[in-house]
Prior knowledge:
20% of the residues lie in helices and 24% in strands. It is of the alpha+beta class.
Amino acid sequence: xxxxxxxxxxxxxxxxxxxxxxxxxxxxxxxxxxxxxxxxxxxxxxxxxxxxxxxxxxxxxxxxxxxxxxxxxxxxxxxxxxxxxxxxxxxxxxxxxxxxxxxxxxxxxxxxxxxxxxxxxxxxxxxxxxxxxxxxxxxxxxxxxxxxxxxxxxxxxxxxxxxxxxxxxxxxxxxxxxxxxxxxxxxxxxxxxxxxxxxxxxxxxxxxxxxxxxxxxxxxxxxxxxxxxxxxxxxxxxxxx
Length: 241
């Protein structure tokens, strides 16, 4: 069994700040090359539900860790994103460790294989699409990354990605320059609705701690989860261009 330890909000703030302003170098990350142009049939299978995938993505949930409110709808999410893409998961790996000596936090990278760009544009200088999540995986194995690789999800998802080469919304005025290491990676625009997959009955956002919750103000997650089919959500985002 693999689970991600939820980090306290204070630690997540530290991680965000360090990632933006004083990142620590890690090993080289290689991934499948980007593909800005949709291949014929690239979005085929979007509406296929893979029951085993939810467990993989739910490991990246971080309850009570949102630093800012999520975008209020899909259009706002797309505006906040560098690119919204349809992609498959190609790999998972440790990217780096960040934070001050007393609060070191490992970063886990989900390596994507893009099949279509729905909105915006992926960074042309990056040959890899690696989405970082802060957290430590705990497994009944000395090699947590190997355990995660053994359960890579199948099929395709829609990802709202933000390049980490610019300051995040939570950065303070006067923050230091973005370190070169951060420029290699993307993050989701929000942990609450930053990616979507096809669920058993409708679209779901499995990385969101409140996935399925409908109460409260409108958010991009709630807007996305109203669609019955992931292909319908993709069509909606594609029409934003």
